[in-house]
Design goal:
Helices cover 90% and strands 0% of the residues. The chain is mainly α. The radius of gyration is 58 Å and the shape is rod-shaped. The chain starts with a helix and ends in a 13-residue tail after the last helix.
């Protein structure tokens, strides 16, 4: 009987040991599965963050290209405006030069006309007699 009790006790201890080992194995397996799920979740998060960063990079590039194109367009518009103003100024300078030349020509003509008129008024009204003996 004591022998039977001892055998029963040993069997119970072996069964408890096997149960503990099974429990420990199940817990290790659960931890491993949780670790795998955590790693998969971390990988999904990293991929999501990478996609978000790539999307932000693409948006920033588009914004920069849009700003560059707008600046280029504005620079071209200002250059056209400046060129038009320069052309208008050159045209005004040329016109002023022509007007000045015309005014100087008109003044010179007026001076000549005045001199001609003065010469006309200083002539005697009748011709002077020629000297009889002209040598």
């Amino acid at each position: 009987m004591a022998e039977d009790a001892r055998i029963i006790t040993i069997k119970k201890m072996n069964e408890e040991s096997l149960a503990n080992e099974r429990q420990a194995s199940a817990e290790r397996e659960l931890r491993a599965e949780a670790g795998q799920r955590s790693a998969a979740a971390s990988q999904l998060l990293a991929e999501s963050q990478r996609a978000a960063a790539q999307s932000e990079t693409d948006r920033t590039k588009r914004d920069a290209e849009t700003a560059r194109a707008a600046a280029q367009s504005e620079a071209e518009r200002m250059k056209r405006e400046t060129d038009a103003q320069r052309a208008a100024a050159l045209s005004d300078i040329e016109r002023a030069g022509r007007e000045k030349a015309e005014a100087e020509a008109a003044r010179a003509a007026a001076v000549l006309a005045q001199q001609a008129a003065q010469a006309e008024t200083t002539k005697p009204a009748w011709p002077l007699a020629k000297p009889i003996n002209s040598v």
